[in-house]
Amino acid sequence: MPDRFEPQTIEMALKAISGAISPISQTEVIGLSESGGRTLARAVLSPKDVPEYPLSAMDGYSFHSQSLDKTREEKDLNLPVLGKSLAGHSLEGETHATAAARIFTGAMVPACHDTVIAQELVRIDDRQQRITFAADSIRRQANVRRQGEDLARGAEALPTGAVIGPREIALLASMGIASIEVVRRVRIAVLSTGDEVTEPGRPLAAGKTYDANRPMLLQMIRDCRATPIDLGIVNDDPQSLRQAILHAATIADAVITSGGVSVGEADHTRKIMESLGDISFWKLAIKPGRPLAAGWISIDSAANKRIPFFGLPGNPVAAFVTFQSIVAPCLRQLAGDRGGIRPTVRARLGKDARKAPGRTEYLRCALVRDANGEWVAEIAASQGAASLKSLTDADGLVVLPHAAGPLTAGTMVDVILL
Do the domain assignments include residue 3? Predict the structure, then answer.
């Protein structure tokens, strides 16, 4: 078994934390209009056929395809027009299987008909109220949305863990569903540590730096569809930090700190974490973001109740990368969320990339198209762990795999889109 205080691969780290996280069980029922971004607590089964009746897919004329049997394909078909069907209304008048009916998009197809021909394909005799069209211009049962074509009654419309977006809202509304049961939003406590950290907007004393991490992490938590709890800045006093983390654990489902986990501070923070619970690992085999502490804070040892803890690096880019690679998947697991993974593209390296095997590296890059329309990843000149400008200018992060050595220009790589 690997030493938990040796640098862990991303896969090992996720297995140690995410694999041990159980999704929260509390749920709530909310209105459909408020459900965007929420996670379904249980599968939704369709209460009805969708559509509930056969509907016309276009403006035209409905008729029964048996009429096509009465004429040869090369001949014209001539039918009387009886009745009219408008969207949202019952059939006006009466029709029958040997007649046609005027019909419009979204209208119910008369029970005695099974085919709709587009109005531009027919010749209309208004005086005699008949239509004529070529028998070979229409296939049987064309232009009709069948009953239950989209969803049959009792079929699974959305699975447990689905994240509700505009498409899901439209689907639920089409079934007449006005409210759904969702997982309670995950609550994540965030605090920054360090005597050198100052709240943005306040005067900056000599030797101090503004806290960029906490505002960034609060927004990243929102992007994960969770609720952030801002606990501000805590100084380097061990007792203050311990009390702040204990308080955070009583009001949140997970705790995130930034700063205080580098080599020079490790013993200090490690003792606090060990006194509160258990450390799963202390370092990641990645760049940027090597100093990452993760483990568990014990809430009720008798009941074996605990919540995850993440101690992120103090450098902003390192905090960003470690959140994306480790924390975000864990938060999705905590929420029972099946979505939210950042998309990736394949691209060619625009220049050589120096790298030694044994760690995964994330390089900020711009994405450009070459003459063939393929993506090329142009690696940014600045890759410092504190260089926020290069992060905001980047289109993505080139992923250099753990086992890879130096890579030459033109090598295909994965790029995580930002």
Answer: no
- Structural domain including 357 reads 344-417
Structure pTM?
0.81
d(CA 355, CA 386): 20
CB 95 within 8 A of CB 111: no
Q: Do 202 and 319 fall within a single domain? A: yes
Residue 6 DSSP label? S
Q: Which of 262, 218, 282 is nearest to 385 (CA)?
A: 262
One-letter amino acid of 416: I
Tell me: do 357 and 399 sit in the same domain. Answer: yes
Tell me the two tokens of residue 343. Answer: 């998309």
3-class SS of residue 300: strand
For the chain, state the CA radius of gyration.
31
Residues 138 and 166 in one domain: no
pLDDT digits 0-9 by tens, 271-327:
788 888 888 888 899 999 888 889 999 887 665 689 999 999 989 999 999 999 999
Is 400 among the domain residues?
yes
Instruction: Answer yes or no: do 241 and 311 share one domain.
Output: yes
Please say whether the dihedral angle defined by the alpha carbons of residues 55, 57, 62 and 64, taken in this order, is positive or negative: negative
Is 175 exposed, middle or buried, given 0-12, 13-18 or 19+ CB atoms closer than 10 A? buried
Q: Are residues 40 and 171 in the same domain?
A: yes
